[in-house]
Task: inverse folding
């Protein structure tokens, strides 16, 4: 993360706040500066610096991977198909300082008045299963006291599966302060056998270091590592502002006890604004290449977008090159299979600009008939959808095939250009 921050600074893209600031003022500043990375160098009551908004645009994420923004989807899609084993080293930045466990020393932020308490929002949790291997994923962590968190674990996801297979208790390492490439890898939803650390290593080479008290490995250059154990104790977790901009419900969730605490010298704590652009992009963008790869199994997929208006989670647009009459519906099924939390998906032709919602609406208006082009599916969706049952996740999903009907003359549906539109220069005829 430090290398990335230096890169941003050299490009004039990093806002640095050098005036002393209280931690409770940081969330509002992150909100007002959403989309722009911010580093707070002097935080009252702590020796930690605080950084936020470092993944808050596609441009930032593309820069972190050294690709153009237009190449981001295809780079991720390629990497998500395979991984490579990271090297394990003996020393890492994350273990430069060993500190007695006291979570009150961390500048853990309370983001809204309705949150139950201070939350770690950028914590990447690493676990291991004897059969499936390592798993890396995001989990929000509500601080309970100086040694314990309540961890939100979504039912049936990999951490939940690992925990149940382990009998209700499981070793964990919690990493805070990571390079965007690692955060992208941690945000993926791939097969349970996939090691996200290998995916991260293919995105940008990383080195791992063994933890001191648990049998796990963590990125050597992250800022903070908390080693501990998920216990069988359950407590109320929440309410907490989530991706949709609404409060998630209170649930019984497991307690994590922290046993060991290490960090870099002059550590930087990473904050992630709930419901902000960081949160939305890290949730939604990694689903796009997964959908892309799955749709390509049934037809030719050209592009995918998880839309901001759909909370960067619930709505998707898939662009295909249609060759068969069933390609649109097959793409719908594949998209829902790839992203199980998605609620609505629209399939469009390659002449439709998926980043222009007027263009997508045009496709729905002129190429879609509800009597034959809609797919309704009942089943489990997202616990983040406040209109669904947030406990059982029962919902109804809708797929819209807004591609040109195969039984129609395609020429009737194509956007028509005026003669000379591509060649005439306005400035040759109209003075400014």
Result:
């Amino acid at each position: 993360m430090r290398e990335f921050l230096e890169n941003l600074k050299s490009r004039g893209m990093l806002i640095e706040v050098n005036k002393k600031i209280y931690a409770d003022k940081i969330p509002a500043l992150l909100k007002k500066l959403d989309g722009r990375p911010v580093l707070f160098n002097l935080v009252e009551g702590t020796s930690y610096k605080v950084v936020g908004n470092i993944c808050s645009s596609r441009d930032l994420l593309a820069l972190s991977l050294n690709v153009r923004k237009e190449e981001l989807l295809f780079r991720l899609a390629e990497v998500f198909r395979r991984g490579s084993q990271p090297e394990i080293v003996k020393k890492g930045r994350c273990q430069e300082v060993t500190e007695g466990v006291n979570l009150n020393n961390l500048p853990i932020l309370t983001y809204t008045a309705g949150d139950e308490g201070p939350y770690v929002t950028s914590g990447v949790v690493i676990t291991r299963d004897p059969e499936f291997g390592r798993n890396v994923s995001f989990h929000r962590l509500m601080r309970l006291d100086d040694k314990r968190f309540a961890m939100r674990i979504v039912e049936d996801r990999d951490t939940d599966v690992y925990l149940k297979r382990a009998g209700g208790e499981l070793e964990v390492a919690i990493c805070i302060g990571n390079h965007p490439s690692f955060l992208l890898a941690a945000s993926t939803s791939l097969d349970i056998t996939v090691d996200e650390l290998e995916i991260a290593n293919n995105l940008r080479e990383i080195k791992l270091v063994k933890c001191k008290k648990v049998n796990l490995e963590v990125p050597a250059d992250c800022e903070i590592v908390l080693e501990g154990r998920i216990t069988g104790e359950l407590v109320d977790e929440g309410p907490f502002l989530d991706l949709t901009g609404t409060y998630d419900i209170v649930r019984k969730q497991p307690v994590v006890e922290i046993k060991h605490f290490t960090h870099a010298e002059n550590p930087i704590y990473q904050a992630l604004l709930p419901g902000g652009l960081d949160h939305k992009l890290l949730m939604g963008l990694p689903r796009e290449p997964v959908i892309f790869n799955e749709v390509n199994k049934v037809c030719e997929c050209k592009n995918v977008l998880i839309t901001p208006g759909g909370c960067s989670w619930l709505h998707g647009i898939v662009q295909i090159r249609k060759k068969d009459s069933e390609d649109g519906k097959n793409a719908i099924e594949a998209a829902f299979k790839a992203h199980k939390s998605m609620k609505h998906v629209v399939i469009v032709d390659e002449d439709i600009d998926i980043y222009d919602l007027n263009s997508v609406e045009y496709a729905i208006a002129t190429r879609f008939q509800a009597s034959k082009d809609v797919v309704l599916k009942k089943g489990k969706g997202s616990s983040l959808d406040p209109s669904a049952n947030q406990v059982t996740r029962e919902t109804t999903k809708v797929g819209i095939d807004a591609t040109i009907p195969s039984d129609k003359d395609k020429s009737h549906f194509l956007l028509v250009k005026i003669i000379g539109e591509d060649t005439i220069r306005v400035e040759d005829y109209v003075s400014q």
